[in-house]
Specification:
- The complex is a heterotrimer of chains A (about 170), B (about 100) and C (about 850).
- With about 170 residues, chain A is an all-alpha fold.
- Chain A has a domain of about 90 residues: NADH-ubiquinone/plastoquinone oxidoreductase chain 6, subunit NuoJ (Four Helix Bundle (Hemerythrin (Met), subunit A), Up-down Bundle).
- In chain A, about 75% of the residues lie in helices and about 0% in strands.
- The longest helix of chain A has 30 residues.
- Chain A is globular, with a radius of gyration of 20 Å.
- Chain B has about 100 residues and is mostly helical.
- Chain B has one domain: Helix Hairpins.
- Chain B is built from three helices and no strands.
- Chain C is about 70% helix and about 5% strand.
- In chain C, helix 3 packs antiparallel against helix 8, helix 22 runs antiparallel to helix 25 and helix 23 crosses helix 30.
- Classes of the chains: A mainly alpha (about 170), B mainly alpha (about 100), C mainly alpha (about 850).
- Chains in contact: A-B, A-C, B-C.
- Chains A and B meet through helix 1, helix 2, helix 3, helix 4 and helix 5 of A and helix 1, helix 2 and helix 3 of B.
Chain lengths: ~170, ~100, ~850
């Protein structure tokens, strides 16, 4: 392997594990934090981490969209939701159910099953080294507006329906 | 990089999300956990796409990740609207108290 | 080759052009803008937005006339030139003089061909299509655009003219209405939608226009929606049309795929005509589209919404439910004529679904028009009947006659509706029997124009209706059967007879309307006495008075047209007139088959004997009705509306027929409630349904229908009667049918009951009781009770345990679900 490529691979791996560990930590904090606003902020970290993983995988456009849509819009929406429902800004006990242990058991079982399946399936599959191989925005948009146009239209209708639905549901009588 | 790295990361995030959905009492927090689950799926899609880049799978993977982002945005909108309605009717969004299904 | 084809007509078509034809989109666009402006600013305008609507529609009318003039000049250009092929499949016009020189440059053969073809025929003319792609996906181009040819410009002229007159009329008629602005906004939107529909270049646009006119119709029928009946009528119209719209969608989609994924009307027609499209698919789509035509154009048996639609304001009835929107179905058939022509094998057959439905509709409509007391309902059924005439004409291949009838009918039917509106404006009612009579004294102008409209509708020469009706009768080709002459398309003799009967009925019921409305003694004016405040309203409710100029002038204009438009299409050779004066309408409107998107249609020869015969038929019908109403009823009492001891009270058959008609063949009963209907109605409905469906079925089963009139009719009648007879019987739930056999049946039943059943039942009863007692003692008390008790206790116990699981906490359920799914996934991994 060429030294430059090797360096790239090492750098990629380093960044992957760095980001992944931050993400897992932040995700754990999202589901365990006793302060609901903190949880939302940890969610930002997870989402940003996902965006970074997208960049690592060469999916630039998806990464940027992830930042724009999730961190820019969805998280703000969450914060609005938190404030409109007058949650305590400070920490709060009792955010969790009493069925924590069954839930932990389920989640651990699930991760074990999935990990086994994943390793069994893709134990040593290597993702090709990223040289000049990221997808361009043009390719993505071409695909959306030709091959996946029907899905795109369906999504448009879905968003409209969600818009109307949200208004109808949340409207005061 | 190995494909399995991303898949494992995704699996872990997914399970954390599931845990959150199952134990959180605050409805907004449940919605956040659902976001975690959706993002885990997205990582899977993009990773598989990148893995099969040489057979042209990168584009579909990314396109569907984009669609999921759109769906997730819609889901948050409707979900929060529902949470607001629950809050307005019960002055609380504690899912512990939402037990109309109780037998 | 050229010379050979030239004998049948122009062999080649040149492309028409011109600014107005290419930019015909402007016309609907103006009306759409007018709608938007009225909607947003109408309320603040001094005349409530009506001035905008009138200005816009007049502008559209002028533009339509210019477009029409341009098309005529293009046809003339094509007539006077020779088509020269400049490249593969593309022809250019060469004038007479230049042709010879040009020909030598192109070589001897071509030159010779042109010499031949320039003699009697010019070139054909292709429609002007201007379109733009707005979306393309997977190799399919979705375009938006306009198509202008003779048919388009005809419809443009009709729609804009009638719409203009209705706009002007409405300023008086709905003056002071609380939704005045809303009314004019919807008139504009309707006009825009209709214009959009008739100018569309592809089937997709046609669907859009079709639905838009439906929406406007809905909104305007329900204009006075505070009245429950009106909003019900609007809903009925909308829902009935939905039934047909399903057919429209399915038909269009089938057509789209059948003709290789194209929406273009011209391409679809071309492919249908040159037999590229599968005949089966054409048949299917034609039948599907036929349902759409049935609902929109009020064809039997989806016509029931049209009379109810008269709940809308009268000008709306004139514009939408008589002159324009309801002909959308006819226009659809005319536009996609290649599909219907080939799909239903119109040429050479002697019966097909379209002609048959048209024929039945025309009879049903005319018969129902007899028994209506509401003047608008008479006109509504008359419209149904006339629409049936048009469908019949299209079904027998008389395309030009159908469109010509559409054209003339638009004028005289709009005239009749507006006249009825004028009368009702004066007497505040539509009921001829209770509130009208003797109106000619009070409303001379309305009377005269209404009379002209009636004569035109009845089809007496030389008014417009005569010419178009006669052309349809000729076009059936059935007269040749009686004359022993060769006929044009198939020999649609049945259709000729149906049309002839309808003509007689039309004349008779219009005579009835004239008598009830304008003759005899005024029967209205009693409302005020009822309420006891006659003085206060004297100015308004005294003697009815003639309407104002904004109502009368549209009537006069339409009356003038109802007299004259018939001369646009004099039959060839009529009174030795030169060729340039006869058949102008057909010449300019009918697309040339050389343009390849219109089938080659044979034209029937006009017949003096048929014209004279049909006139005699009409005159005798008028005379019969005249004798009944003007002589007998009037002699009885000037205020009478029917003979006290008339034929319906003397003859039970006639009485039954009258009841059947009064109940509108019980169709509404079936549609509305599914209540048991009297057997007679059900039976007749069943046989009519059977005739329609069965003939269609028989036709479908018999492909080579050219020589198979009788087999298909037999098939149709037998199958149809069997299928729908069963349905009819089921509908009548035996109530009425049993009345024929009631007595013997009742006696037989009684005897059976007493002698057989009772004895059996008694025996069975005694034995049963004995057995039951035994069972009770031994089995019930002993075994079953114990089992039930223990099962109950067990359930209760288990439920108490399980109850804790049903906590109502969704997340607890979620945990169980996820755990279960995980276990299953783990199991699957292990197993696999």
């Amino acid at each position: 392997m060429m030294p430059a490529v090797l360096a790239a691979v090492v750098a990629q791996n380093v960044f992957f594990y760095l980001i992944a560990s931050i993400m897992v930590y932040a995700a754990l904090r999202v589901v365990t934090s006793s302060n609901i606003v903190h949880a939302a902020l940890y969610l930002v970290v997870v989402l940003a981490g996902v965006a970074a993983q997208f960049l690592l995988l060469g999916a630039e456009f998806v990464g940027i969209t992830q930042v724009l849509v999730y961190i820019g819009a969805v998280v703000v929406l969450f914060l609005f939701g938190i404030m409109l429902t007058r949650a305590k800004v400070g920490s709060e006990d009792n955010l969790d159910h009493d069925n924590r242990w069954p839930a932990i058991l389920t989640a651990v079982m699930l991760v074990l099953v999935m990990a086994y399946a994943v390793i069994d399936f893709a134990g040593d599959s290597e993702i090709a080294v990223l040289d000049q191989s990221e997808t361009t925005v043009q390719q993505v948009s071409d695909a959306i507006f030709s091959t996946y146009i029907v899905a795109f239209e369906a999504i448009s209708v879905l968003l409209l329906a969600a818009l109307i639905g949200a208004i109808v549901v949340a409207r005061k009588e | 990089m190995y494909l399995v790295q991303f898949l494992l990361l995704s699996a872990v995030l997914f399970c954390i999300g599931v845990y959150g959905v199952l134990v959180r009492r605050n409805a907004v927090l449940v919605l956040m956990s659902i976001e975690l689950i959706l993002n885990a799926v997205n990582i899977n899609l993009v990773a598989f796409g990148a893995f099969n880049r040489d057979v042209g799978a990168a584009i579909p993977g990314e396109v569907f990740a984009l669609f999921i982002i759109a769906v997730a945005a819609a889901e948050v909108g409707v979900g929060l609207a529902m949470v607001l309605t629950i809050y307005r009717n019960r002055k609380s969004i504690d899912l512990h108290q939402v037990d109309l299904l109780k037998g | 080759m050229h010379a050979f084809l030239a004998a049948e007509g122009p062999s080649a078509a040149i492309q028409a052009g011109g600014w107005f034809l290419e930019n015909v989109w402007i016309i609907p666009a103006i009306m759409a803008c007018s709608f938007a402006i009225i909607l947003f600013f109408g309320k603040r305008m001094p005349k409530g937005g009506s001035e905008i609507g009138i200005a816009a529609v007049l502008a559209c009318f002028v533009l339509s006339l210019l477009t029409g003039a341009q098309w005529i000049s293009e046809v003339n250009r094509a007539d006077n030139c020779v088509a020269v092929e400049i490249s593969e499949g593309k022809y250019e016009c060469e004038s007479h003089e230049g042709a010879g020189e040009q020909a030598s440059a192109f070589g001897e053969v071509l030159g010779a061909a042109e010499e031949e073809s320039e003699g009697a025929y010019g070139a054909g003319l292709k429609a002007v299509v201007s379109e733009r792609t707005w979306w393309s996906n997977g190799g399919v181009n979705f375009t938006i655009g306009t198509m202008a040819d003779g048919l388009t410009v005809t419809l443009l002229a009709v729609v804009t003219l009638v719409s203009s007159l209705v706009h002007i009329y409405s300023t008086d008629y709905v003056a002071g209405d609380r939704r005045f602005t809303h009314y004019f906004a919807f008139l504009s939107l309707f006009t825009a939608a209709m214009l959009f529909f008739v100018t569309s270049a592809n089937t997709l646009q046609m669907i859009v226009g079709w639905e838009l006119v439906g929406v406007c119709s809905f909104a305007l029928i329900g204009h006075w929606w505070e009245d429950q009946a009106n909003s019900d009528a609007a809903l009925k119209a909308f829902l009935t049309n939905r039934v047909g719209d399903m057919g429209l969608l399915i038909g269009m989609i089938v057509l789209f795929f059948a003709s290789g994924e194209t929406w273009s009307i011209i391409d679809i027609n071309k492919l249908a005509i040159d037999h590229t499209t599968s005949h089966t698919l054409l048949l299917i789509s034609a039948l599907c589209l036929l349902t759409a035509v049935m609902s929109k154009s009020g064809q039997f048996f989806l016509h029931t919404w049209l009379p109810d639609a008269m709940a809308g304001p009268t000008p709306v009835s004139a514009l939408i439910h008589a002159a324009t929107m309801v002909v959308a179905g006819i226009y659809l058939v005319a536009r996609l004529y290649g599909v219907f022509f080939e799909g239903l094998s119109i040429a050479g057959s002697s019966i097909n679904a379209l002609a048959l439905i048209g024929g039945i509709t025309t009879l049903v409509g005319a018969s129902l028009a007899f028994v209506q007391d509401d003047i608008k309902k008479v006109l509504a059924y008359s419209t149904i009947s006339q629409l049936g005439y048009m469908a019949l004409a299209l079904g027998v291949g008389a395309w030009t006659a159908a469109i010509f009838h559409l054209f003339t009918h638009a004028f005289f039917k709009a005239l009749l509706f507006l006249g009825a509106g004028s009368v009702s404006h004066a007497v505040h009612s539509f009921n001829m029997k209770t509130d009208m009579g003797g109106m000619r004294k009070f409303m001379p102008t309305t009377y005269k124009t209404f009379l002209i409209g009636s004569i035109a509708l009845a089809g007496l020469p030389p008014l417009a209706g005569f010419w178009s009706k006669d052309e349809i009768l000729v076009g059936t080709g059935g007269w040749g059967f009686f004359e022993g002459k060769p006929h044009s398309n198939g020999a649609y003799t049945v259709m000729l007879i149906m049309g002839m009967i309808t003509a007689a009925m039309t004349a008779a019921y219009m005579t009835r309307v004239i008598y009830l409305t304008f003759y005899g003694e005024f029967r209205g004016g009693h409302h005020d006495d009822d309420h006891g405040h006659a003085d206060a309203h004297d100015a308004h409710h005294g003697d009815p008075h003639e309407s104002g100029p904004r109502i009368l002038w549209p009537l006069r204009i339409l009356a003038f047209l109802a007299v004259t438009v018939g001369f646009l299409n004099l039959p060839p050779g009529f009174l030795g007139l030169p060729k340039g004066l006869t058949e102008r309408f057909g010449h300019y409107v009918e697309p040339s088959s050389a343009a390849k998107y219109f089938p080659k249609i044979n034209h029937a020869d006009p017949s003096w004997s048929l014209a004279i015969f049909s006139t005699i038929v009409v005159l005798s019908a008028v005379a019969a009705a005249y004798w009944y109403y003007f002589v007998k009823v009037n002699r009885q009492s000037p205020a009478a509306t029917e003979l006290v001891n008339g034929p319906t009270s003397r003859s039970s058959v006639l009485k039954a027929g009258h009841t059947l008609l009064k109940n509108r063949y019980y169709l509404d009963h079936i549609y509305d409630s599914g209540k048991p209907v009297p057997a007679v109605g059900a039976g007749i409905v069943a046989s009519l349904f059977g005739l329609a469906a069965g003939s269609a079925l028989g036709f479908t089963l018999d492909n080579g229908l050219n020589q198979a009139f009788l087999p298909s009719l037999t098939w149709g009648l037998s199958l149809g009667t069997v299928v729908f007879g069963i349905v009819g019987l089921a509908l009548s739930t035996g109530v009425g049918v049993a009345s024929f056999v009631k007595k013997p049946l009742a006696w037989a039943t009684n005897w059976t009951h007493e002698n057989l059943l009772d004895a059996t039942v008694d025996q069975v009863g005694v034995r049963s009781v004995q057995a039951a007692e035994a069972v009770y003692k031994h089995i019930d008390q002993g075994v079953i009770d114990t089992a039930v008790n223990s099962a109950g206790a067990g359930s209760s116990g288990a439920g108490g345990e399980l109850r804790r699981l049903a906590s109502g906490k969704v997340q607890q359920y979620g945990t169980i679900m996820f755990a279960g799914a995980t276990l299953l996934a783990g199991l699957m991994i292990i197993i696999i």
